[in-house]
Write a structure and sequence with these properties.
The complex is a heterodimer.
Chain A (H helix, E strand, L loop, with lengths): L13 H30 L3 E8 L4 H18 L1 E8 L4 H11 L5 E6 L15 H11 L4 H7 E2 L4 E2 L2 E6 L3 E4 H6 L7 H13 L12 H13 L17 H17 L11 H7 L5 E3 L3 H9 L1 H6 E4 L10 E2 L1 E7 L6 H13 L1 H7 L5 E2 L34 E2 L9 H8 L2 H10 L5 H22 L1
Chain B lengths: L16 H7 L1 H31 L16 H8 L3 H31 L5 H7 L2 H4 L2 H12 L5 H8 L15 H30 L2 H9 L4 H29 L3 H6 L11 H11 L3 H9 L1 H20 L1
The chains are: A alpha/beta, B mainly alpha.
Chain lengths: ~450, ~300
Amino acid sequence: MRSGGNKKTRSVTRRDFLKTSGVVAGAAGLAPAISAPFVSRAMAQSKTLSIVQWSHFVPAYDTWFDKFAKDWGDKNHIAVTVDHISENDIAARAAAEASARAGHDIFGWNGGASGAHLYRKFLVNLTDLVESTAKKYGKPTVIGTQIGYDADTKTWSAFPDFYINYPAMYRKSMWDEIGMKPDTWDNVRIGGAKLKAKGHPVGISLGHSNDPNTTWRGVLWSYGGAVQDKDGKRIVLNSKESIEAVKFVAALYKEAMTSEVLSWDDSSNNRYLDSGVSSLILNPISAYRTAQQVNKKMADDIFVLKPPKGPAAQIMGAAAGFYGIWDFAKNKEGALEFLKYYADHWPEAFKASEGYNNPCFANIVPKPMPILSNDPTSNPPDKLSVLQTSDEWCAAPGYPGPATPAIDEIYNEFILCDMMSKTATGQASAEDSVKLATQLSEAIFKKWQQRT
Amino acid sequence: MAVITAPAEPVVRPVSRFRFVLDRRGVLGSIFIAPAILYVLLLVGVPFLLALYYSVSAYTLYDPSWRFVGLGNFEQIVRNPVFLETLGNTFLFTFGSQLLGLIMGKFGALLLLRPFPGRRIVRALIILPWVVPIALATIAWQWMFDSLYSVINWTLIAFGIVTRENAPNWLGTPSLAMLCIIIVNAWRFFPFAIVIFLAGITAVPQDVIDAATVDGAGFWRRNYQIILPMILPIVAIGLIFGIVFTFTDLSIVFLLTKGGPGEATSVLGFEGFQVGIVSGDVAQGAAISLFMLPVLLVVVIGMLRFIRRREI
């Protein structure tokens, strides 16, 4: 017999629980169906366009771009959203969106490797857009073609947006003191050794990040070496020129740098220069812009040169930015229209980036270029004018051939960085380092040839 | 005259058969456990099978085809001259950090067993490394190991132990870089080890310890010949978690060293991510990741057998 008298107790039975949870689950399931007519009516009021791209090193650029995109959306009754993600997250994000066949309408790639060519089967053909832009603003530059053009299909899978160059930035007073100018790689080594003795070493990373991947490619090319041939069909790394380049890097490390560079990330050389220690780095002008903010006097002493000249060429690696439209984008027409509009307003983007984004079409920013030819914040104002010629001395990974998935993987595996650092730290001879790097690169090439 | 009315017959409602089915414990239990099983099947089983298939296919982001290539991906990986180094690094990183984490956990637990003012707060704070997002923690460690502004080097120089010229290059010297990632992972793991040790030690009957003390067992003998053998099964469970999580981890390496210098800290998880996601060769990335499977299977089965024997 149950007891309890007047005291009412209420317990939840298994049946009650199931009933209640059934009702709740049912209601939750029906909610979208009930609200759908209202939601869809609200959604139908405007189309949407979503863009994802990196968080720019110049924060003011993001502010400008977000407003630019929103204003375009307002004019065209399209709700535009712009998401900014870290440069390190771009590859994973692109892979996720492509695999899920869902995400943003426009994807902005940025960085040294893993670009639009990897995703060409997921992207809208942008040949018409690039050709019409080229008609108006001149031929795409070498780097623009490398990153967006697919020679096999003769189509453009990406719209080349900009590239970031890596000029030499040096402390003029220090180099004047030793009576030298870091305009050749030999001068960098000889002058760097003198300045290292005075406590001002050269600072070029030998770690695993974009900067060394880009800079050491430039040195390799300057010495006449390359990873692949012009057609991108064959690995040509194991050459006398490559060995000479590796020997030079080892000498530069021993004579003009310190072991600190072995673990640097992309911000370390900026800090090294801005702290007043380093006599020279190779980097985008963000390092100089930061110096202007933290120490104007020192910034006035930082001068900008073309990358040093090697025995074979004066050329340097660069990191490119480019846009693609997913073939699963919900608003492909809107995305295409936005990119057309953006191309027509590219000089504004150039100004907003403070000269950091360099043009991928020959005449899209006519010379003399604003800011670079006359920068009121710099002393002298034409300090950055040499950057106007950077299309002549910049190339993307893969040079003299195209950027391909195999070239990307060689980049992402830091094979060239390790080739240089192993010899620099005495772990292997220049010949052995080049041999190992060639072996690894050939295996990657062979694999991708089987994949495509 | 009173009229006696017959009591009303209780209304018998027809009872649904479903109601009785739900009353069976076995059936209801299965219904309750079904979401968990479904969850595991969908979020663990399906991706695992997918990874198995990817590893024998030619699937890339460049050409997302499901062409079967047999064991070709595994063959390419084994032929890679630096793969063995990556595999060795993974073992060193995993077992090195677990060993260090266990030692720190054991001493931490012994310290936290003793009463002292603020012990509760310390017990709560000590769990922080376990709960702090690893990305944040690793950035803090990166600054401590930074080649230019390392606070560790600054301290060593301030105390005159090293000079600026011969200060250790934590992330730039291969052996030190490996030590750094081991330290960071051990630091993350040790609060978990403390909790495991505390749970084990407090479960040891006090009379056993008292009897050992009466028999003349000192601190070391009590700890390592009486308490430790008794708590080994629970420590082994913690260790299984630690090994599985560390063996498959890529975050510390990705954030701290990107596998460098050279290939000194490249581990399987990082390599799989670089090849499979960053470079878009999903098939080979999956194959690299699957190299972890046999190793983890052997370790987990071995440890579970050990635990079962200890319990018997």
